Amino acid sequence: MKKWMRLPAFMAAFLLALLLPFSNAQAATLKDGTYSVNYTVLKAEGNAVSMANDYWLKPAKVIAKNGKLTVQMTIKNSSWVTEFKVPGNGGYVDTTVLSTNKKANTRLVQFQAQSLSKPIKSKIHVTVKSADYDHDYTIQLKFDESSMKSLSSNSANKSTGAQESQQPSKESTNKADTSTTKQQEENPQTGDTSQVGWLLVLVLCSGGFLARKWIIKQ
């Protein structure tokens, strides 16, 4: 009886060992291109939403190129957020300001990210002189990878970085980005689903063969 109970456990462990590395590899792969992705600004610990969430406009833009991710975000009430730092060089480094819009009180920033699968801890400093408010905060940027949508192909993305840094941020630009995002089809972030199907078939066949040999030996 114990021998037959071992068989399901063996099969489950076998399938898990083969499928987990494959799914992890898929999650870490993003084809070269430009994407939009929703995100939430959380407090330093846990999943509670930070008050700062209202000042980080959504969605963010993600530029994937040669295995590297560049994230671009627009901050409103920009004059209040005097510092915005992300992990880098063993500590925290300032995000790069691409453009500012003094009239709208916004600024477009960007930073490099290793992955979007886990929340990115960041440091911000908020100063509101009229309210005598001056504080440092730690926040987390939690990305919803399921919301990721393609904004451009690889070929269209070649000059995106240069164009973003040269053009000033305007309210009309933000509206155009939002409208473009709605029209794009959702990005299949992971690999071709047919590959998963074939892998599953191979796994089941291999598992059945091994199980048969195991039963014969017993």
UniProtKB/TrEMBL annotation:
<feature type="compositionally biased region" description="Polar residues">
    <location>
        <begin position="160"/>
        <end position="192"/>
    </location>
</feature>
<dbReference type="InterPro" id="IPR017502">
    <property type="entry name" value="Sortase_SrtB_target"/>
</dbReference>
<dbReference type="InterPro" id="IPR037250">
    <property type="entry name" value="NEAT_dom_sf"/>
</dbReference>
<feature type="compositionally biased region" description="Low complexity">
    <location>
        <begin position="150"/>
        <end position="159"/>
    </location>
</feature>
<keyword id="KW-0964">Secreted</keyword>
<dbReference type="Pfam" id="PF05031">
    <property type="entry name" value="NEAT"/>
</dbReference>
<feature type="domain" description="NEAT">
    <location>
        <begin position="30"/>
        <end position="151"/>
    </location>
</feature>
<keyword id="KW-0732">Signal</keyword>
<dbReference type="InterPro" id="IPR019909">
    <property type="entry name" value="Haem_uptake_protein_IsdC"/>
</dbReference>
<dbReference type="InterPro" id="IPR050436">
    <property type="entry name" value="IsdA"/>
</dbReference>
<keyword id="KW-0408">Iron</keyword>
<feature type="signal peptide">
    <location>
        <begin position="1"/>
        <end position="27"/>
    </location>
</feature>
<dbReference type="InterPro" id="IPR006635">
    <property type="entry name" value="NEAT_dom"/>
</dbReference>
<protein>
    <submittedName>
        <fullName>Cell surface protein</fullName>
    </submittedName>
</protein>
<keyword id="KW-0572">Peptidoglycan-anchor</keyword>
<feature type="region of interest" description="Disordered">
    <location>
        <begin position="150"/>
        <end position="192"/>
    </location>
</feature>
<keyword id="KW-0134">Cell wall</keyword>
